[in-house]
Design a protein that fits this description.
218 residues; alpha/beta; 7-stranded mixed β-sheet; 7 strands
């Protein structure tokens, strides 16, 4: 599997989210949580650039993803001309040290093959005082709700995979990746250990999804 779960146009995590059978938090919420419009912002694991295209005018915006097919879809969207589209690896970003003010990651952090290495690479690219904001699946509370949610994901991902692709296993990596993902508390702890400051998270829907955030020391 690619380091980001983006397999091509209209497949993978981005396509799944667009067809999710219940409402999900808007990626715009993640974009707005990053604060005032930065001078330079990167949408990492961008897919088709949903986050990048929501950043306000006046910022230099980079959409980075491993899969060129997804970036091509993003380039075809309205207002895509103000975004720089770059194919790259999340663990080896083609950016100088301290070159961006914000990094946003929507539904991609849990698919990094090495989460700590990915966070270190993001940290390297952020300017002093820069901020990382991520939106991803979380760990619901109480634990009984989390177990029920995982069962729901097992059933719904299989059903949607069959309906869309006649392949019940198309999206099964989503609940499997969630079982391995440290979720909001684990991500916050890793960020703190790596030297991010003011780390925290905002639970959405009892923690089923969450926004994590943290700043590089100024």
């Amino acid at each position: 599997m690619d380091r980001w779960a983006h397999a091509g146009p209209d497949t993978g995590a981005s396509a799944f989210m667009r067809r999710w059978p219940v409402p999900i938090p808007s990626v715009g919420m993640c974009a707005s949580y990053s604060g005032a419009s930065p001078d330079a912002m990167m949408d990492l694991a961008a897919g088709t650039g949903d986050l990048a295209l929501r950043v306000g005018e006046g910022s230099r915006v980079l959409a980075a993803d491993l899969t060129m097919e997804m970036l091509k879809v993003g380039r075809s969207k309205a207002n895509s001309g103000r975004v720089e589209w770059t194919q790259c690896d999340a663990l080896a970003l083609p950016l100088p040290d301290q070159s961006v003010d914000r990094v946003l990651v929507g539904y991609g952090l849990r698919n990094f093959t090495d989460l700590e290495a990915g966070l270190r690479e993001i940290q390297r690219c952020l300017k002093p005082g820069g901020r990382l904001v991520t939106l991803d699946f979380g760990r619901a509370s109480p634990p009984r709700l989390h177990r029920l949610y995982l069962k729901y994901l097992d059933i719904s991902t299989a059903a949607i995979g069959w309906l869309l692709h006649r392949d019940a296993e198309s999206y099964l990596y989503i609940p499997e990746s969630l079982r391995q993902f440290p979720a909001q508390t684990g991500v916050a702890d890793k960020m703190l250990r790596l030297g991010f400051e003011r780390c925290g998270y905002l639970d959405l829907w009892f923690g089923v999804m969450a926004i994590n955030f943290g700043d590089v020391p100024a």
